[in-house]
Amino acid sequence: MRSKLAQTLSSIPTRSIRLPQSTLRCSSTKVTGQKPTPKPQQGDADLNIKEFLSQPTWSVQSLVPPANDSANERPVSAEKLRHLLRLSALPEPKDEKEEARLMQDLASQLHFVKEIQKVDTKGVEPLRAIRDETLQAEQEAELTVEKLQEAFDNEEVLGKYHKRIRRRKDIPVVDEDTPPDWKPLDHAKRRQGDFFVVSRSKEPTP
Amino acid sequence: MSWRPTGSLFKPVRPITLSTKWNLHVQRCRRQSSLRTFQDDPQEAPDNVPIRQQLKDQLKQKKAAKKKNSKYDDHDAMGKAWELTVGIEIHAELDTARKLFSSAPTNSGSKPNTNVSLHDLAYPGAQPIFQIGTVLPALRAALALDCTIQRESTFDRKHYFYQDQPAGYQITQFYQPFAKNGTLTLGEADGISRQDGDSVDIGIERVQLEQDTAKSLVVSGDSTLLDFNRVSHPLIEIISRPDIHSPATAAAYVRKVQALLKSVGAVTAGMETGGLRADVNVSVRKRSDLAPEDTRLGQRTEIKNLSSLKAVEDAVKAERDRQIAILESGGTIEGETRGWTVGGTETYSLRKKEGEVDYRYMPDPDLPPLIISQQLIQQLQATIPLPADTLVAKLVDGYGVTEKDARTLCNMGDGERLEYFFDAVARTEDLLGSTDMTARVGRLIANFTVHEIPALMTKIDLEPQWSPELIPALQLASLVHLLHTKRIHNSAARVLLAKIFETEDGASLSVSELAEKENLLRSLQTDEDSPGTDSTDLIDDVVGPVSAQVFEVNQKMVNDILVKKEVKKVYFFVGLVMKELGKQGKAKTYDPRDVSDAVQRAFWDKYGP
């Protein structure tokens, strides 16, 4: 629990950081479609480390699909593509050409995700955020009766025989965090009286 | 809002025909009240009056028929062949001072778009800051539902784009909710379906904290108006297990959750003002297809945003019938989200159901986990108000209150009537100098609180507002003390109550002074010499001779009853006798119902077989 970050880091094989020149040269934008070919090693049994380091085990190239990967040209159906666009509040493709381009983008993105999913994360808790995970920090965050004293003070108990708890409504609630000169409607594109206005005809289906 | 169980209430037990206006009023009160609570001896009068038995039997039959109509919802062959399964998600607005993740206030009465912070409108860079006061009502709600509170819970984003959610996601607790594994037991008094027997346990899978959405107002043209005051108001979502198998029980569950949340002060409003909304998941499966251990359910649909108990019951019924009709004609049920219009007869499709994956849940990196100490849970558990079922048991077992009245006391208003009840009982015990008679006076005081005082209020004012000051608890205690020590009759108690309520004297004189002034103290004192004896003899001594006179004068009527068997005409004599007693100034010292009984006894003694 405590050392999520450390665990995550240790699970990444550090030796793969060193990449052969060929891979580096053809990195991000241009894809050769060729696997990096390691140089054949000439004996030298004494220098195992050298041999080891010379063999790349991973390449960033694995994250991009090979060129002319016709098998994955349309990773999802046209219907599914539209569903995904709708969920993301993105516009539908105007024509077939645009649809093909979107499919291609999606294919390379899915390839990337699948590669990432190959990393063995068994027993590793997901890293939700980078924050202080010490015992002391947890104790500070723990909600106790003392920390909630103000909230308790803002309650009252009604009744002598049948006790009921009510939040007191007579205590003013002052919002100190919101800038006093900021008005929520200031940046409204359309407004009507005290309301924001949106057009129903443009509403995406929820 | 008071809620009363259906079926057995408000039935006239013994109709009486009386002439004066006051007596008409008394009659009305009687119809609303449980007459038996006034009787010293709960036993019925001897069975020598066939008419009464006849009327009683008729009422019994009517009651049974009504019960069958309203409660037996798994009707006919269809209900026997198909099993309905329902799971319910309830969203309840918590009563908090501030929003869930910003310090903006929550007051519902404010001008639109004023209680809004930068974070509520998802301004770039605005961070969510959990408002710790929110956990008090949330934890009380979860404890009331018998849940296990999780020491650590987390917040997640549920993504969807809609105008009422500026961030493009709602913050909720998908992966680790703050409370799990609760139970709610529903009994017969909660209005469950007959098929559930005496009681049924509904499992609560989880309770999670989440943000509310903005309010949309649809206006003419193509515009929708948005008020972001409600955005990020703290909600709890209570998710039940699919343990419900009838529409009536579905409504009973929502009703009870609502009452429970209110009783622990977790929420301010109920369904009537939109403070609570329910989504129901409905599926059916054919019983004959099932192996006994088979737990697989049919394809379900979700009906969203039901805002009344009636809507819950009606929508479940309609959706059950729709699904059965489709399956019986060989179709299949589509997993989808459906809607319901109040007063409608059918649910309608809103959209294809989004799968969980479509919401792309992810842990919110901006929010640390919520950590709740055991000490806080213990403190809240120790001070949580008693649930209604426990209170009802206490009232029935310890105070001799009928279960019906006990439920009404607990459900009426904001608990102030129950407080009044306990206050009046304590004061009566003081006057009696003993707590031995608690069960006896408790029953009387409950009757006054639930029936007599409201009846008076309705008489004076069409829209009465309850207040413990209407009849101060001490005065009710004095009145009950007089009644209990047999210094006044039941009917006089009502008159006295009205005098306390209506007159100047009521405020200045003590109750016993007032009783004396109004000449309401019992005319026959024998009872006091031998308390506990039945007063039947006394009333017969007075009513008997008067009755004999009126029978003599109305021989034709006597013959109608005897010869034509028009037995109901005996009530004609009751009216005449009351009138006669009125002339003698004795009407108020007797309970009209006792007079009615005495007249009937006198009649059948004289002319009976």
From TrEMBL, chain A:
Residues 1-45 are annotated as: Disordered. Residues 74-127 form the Glutamyl-tRNA amidotransferase complex subunit Gta3 domain. Keywords: Coiled coil. It comes from the Eukaryota. Pfam families: Gta3 (PF20978). One of its GO terms (cellular component) is glutamyl-tRNA(Gln) amidotransferase complex. InterPro entries: Asp/Glu-ADT_sf_sub_c, GatC, Gta3_dom. One of its GO terms (biological process) is regulation of translational fidelity. The keyword Cytoplasm does not apply. Residues 1-35 have a biased composition (Polar residues). The keyword Coiled coil applies. SUPFAM superfamilies: Glu-tRNAGln amidotransferase C subunit (SSF141000). Residues 131-158 form a coiled coil. This is Glutamyl-tRNA amidotransferase complex subunit Gta3 domain-containing protein.
From TrEMBL, chain B:
Its EC number is 6.3.5.-. SMART domains: GatB_Yqey. Keywords: ATP-binding, Ligase, Mitochondrion, Nucleotide-binding, Protein biosynthesis. SUPFAM superfamilies: GatB/YqeY motif (SSF89095), Glutamine synthetase/guanido kinase (SSF55931). GO terms for cellular component: glutamyl-tRNA(Gln) amidotransferase complex; mitochondrion. One of its GO terms (biological process) is mitochondrial translation. The keyword Membrane does not apply. Coiled coil: none annotated. Residues 420-603 form the Asn/Gln amidotransferase domain. It is an enzyme of class 6 (ligase). The keyword Methyltransferase does not apply. GO terms for molecular function: ATP binding; glutaminyl-tRNA synthase (glutamine-hydrolyzing) activity. It holds the Pfam family GatB_Yqey. HAMAP family: GatB. Belongs to the GatB/GatE family. GatB subfamily. Subunit of the heterotrimeric GatCAB amidotransferase (AdT) complex, composed of A, B and C subunits. This is Glutamyl-tRNA(Gln) amidotransferase subunit B, mitochondrial. It comes from Microthyrium microscopicum.
